[in-house]
Amino acid sequence: MTTLLDMLRPSFLLCHAVYGSMVVGFVVPLVGSYFLLRRLVFWGVALPEVSAAGISCAFMLQGLGFTLLAGGESGQKHLAILGSVVFTVAAIVFLAYTEQRGGVPEGRVGSLYALAGALAILFLVWNPGGEAEMLGLLKGEIVTISGHDFRAMLEVFGLVTAAMFVFQREFTLVSYDRDMAVTLGRNVLVWDGLLFLIVGITVSLGVMTAGPLVIFGFLVIPPMAALPWARGMLSFCLLASLVGGFCALGGFYLSFTRDLPLGPVIVCLACAVLLVSSALRKLLRKAGC
Amino acid sequence: MKNEPLLRFEDASLGYGRRAVLTGVSYEVAQGSFLGILGHNGSGKSTMLKTMLGLLPPLKGRFRARGAGGKPRYGYVPQKEKLDPIYPLTAYEVAAMGSYRSLDLWRRLRGQGPQELVRRCLKQCGALELSAKRYSDLSGGQRQRVLIARALAAEPELLVLDEPLAGIDVTTQGALLKLFEDFKRRQELTILMVSHRVQHEKSLFTHVAWVDEGKVEVGPTDKMLSASHIMRIFEAEL
Questions:
Q1: In which band, very low, low, confident or very high, does the pLDDT at B1 lie, cut at 50, 70 and 90?
Q2: Could you give the number of structural domains in chain A?
Q3: Which residue of chain A is at minimal alpha-carbon distance from B84?
Q4: According to the model, what pLDDT value does residue B49 have?
């Protein structure tokens, strides 16, 4: 039987997939922490779905003969990323703009989610190029990730991680107390814009590699599990990231050894960690710790 | 420069969108003064405060804020309930936010932060021992001390306090009033304080602004808080 250590060895057939899952698990909760704190959890549901619709749209255009990017399979993937980023960033801009105008924000997010889900299916149906390969991309086929794609993902997520830590003060300030940020002369639109751009890139790339379900899970569940234990933003982000990484590795191991689908296993494991975290915190509180 | 007013309203209308909440606002806030902003709920105190902080442009007329180097350095203490308790920030992190005026990336990457300044401000407000605690776990009075420390960490010319004594026990109220008294005595700070009541605070104010029925009336404390003046305001309301 394959052990956990065997899976981490470079000789393991799916080693890029294992490390890829872990990178997604480490990085996505860093972004998700702000979703939770800004009480935008529903965005976390809608944006992966919007990203999937963007991928589907890009492939439909390719199938209809609009050759936007050449280069065979690699060109197709770049096109999918482009479609995903464009759709996700456009959705973020729309949600951020309409949020300032009041109304029922949850209703708008819900409608966007439904629309994105419907469009993803319609784009797929209208694509004369076939459905099979796109279904893989829409669901997120991290198991098939190549060494080249893994390195590209590592570079992008490395930049995302660096930005999240370097600009943590600014992101926290504009999220926590916008008025204070303005009185200090900080440009809240610029910092919000940068944060949302990073969110857009992370969600898009994450959906391409791990699928909408896993990305939504990683955006919300690890930060939820980390929150009761955190003392400060740095510890919160690091804890959330560690929980995400652990669930990705554990989920991959369970999925591989028990022959189960990867995405659902990762999400169920993350929920189990959340339950244990909440129960433990309650117990400790009762004990007066 | 000392005689230049820090803030000046000239026949300004203040409000949101096209709806004016306050009209014909004209007054100046001189450096070193302690202005008490009084009025009932919904009278427009927050609208005036937001305009002073630069969060809301005047609908009509002019508002000018000028400090030593252009725009004055603000130290803002919001109502503590406005800050979401879901954030797992420590008291130190909340206080340190006051020093986030510039990016200062190079210093940050070298690990040089404003620790000294933040610790000094926390100490000045009697909140240094709370540094490592989670801000949301603190009592109302402790939170207020941390928020005042945060405002001081901005090294302000103008300290803006939005109902700083609301929902705080009497002992802590007294301690905070002593702190404000100290700020006033040193004369380095210009202070604006929004308040519901005047019982304890009135000895601090050099000037008072009554915000009522869409108008703002400003004058020296003795005149504005005289029994006859207060009677007039409340009679008008009745």
A1: very low
A2: 1
A3: A176
A4: 92
Domain that holds residue A9: 2-275
Q: Which of A166, A180, A235 is most worth mutating to test chain B (most B CB atoms within 10 A of its CB)?
A: A180
Confidence at residue A197, expressed as pLDDT on a 0 to 100 scale:
92
- Say which residues have a Cβ less than 8 Å from residue B234's Cβ, sequence separation at least 6: none
Does some domain include residue A282? Answer: no
- CA-nearest residue to A179 within chain B is B55
Residue A285 belongs to a domain: no
Answer yes or no: do B101 and A185 touch at CB < 8 A.
Answer: yes
| pLDDT at B74 exceeding the cut of 80 | yes
> Is the sign of the CA dihedral A244, A245, A246, A247 positive or negative?
positive
A265 CA: distance to closest CA in chain B (Å): 29
Q: Say if A288 falls within a structural domain.
A: no
Residue A108 maps to a domain: yes
- The CA-to-CA distance between both ends of chain A, in Å, stands at 41
pTM confidence score: 0.88
Count CB pairs under 8 A between chains A and B: 77
What is the distance between the alpha carbons of residues A265 and A250, in angstroms, rounded to a whole number?
9
CA distances from B89 to A107, A173, A251, A274, B85 (A): 30, 11, 31, 21, 9
ipTM value? 0.89
Min Cα separation B114/chain A (Å): 12
Separation between Cα atoms, residue A89 and residue A193, nearest integer Å:
10
Chain B contact present for A230, CB below 8 A: yes
Instruction: Flag if A172 and B134 touch (Cβ within 8 Å).
Output: no
Q: Of B37-41, B65-69, B210-214, give the lowest mean pLDDT range.
A: B65-69
- Closest CA relative to residue B192, chosen from B174, B205, B179, B203: B205
- Spell out which residues of chain B touch residue A181, defining contact as CB-CB under 8 Å: 100
Distance from CA of B67 to the nearest CA of A (A): 13
Among the listed residues A288, A31, A8, the one whose alpha carbon sits nearest the alpha carbon of residue A157: A31
User: What is the CATH number for A208?
Assistant: 1.10.3470.10
Q: Which of A36, A183, A239 to mutate to test the interface with B (most CBs of B within 10 A)?
A: A183
Query: Average pLDDT of each block of 10 consecutive residues along chain A (289 residues)?
Result: 79 88 96 94 89 88 72 71 90 88 84 93 80 62 80 94 95 96 93 93 88 90 96 96 96 91 92 96 87
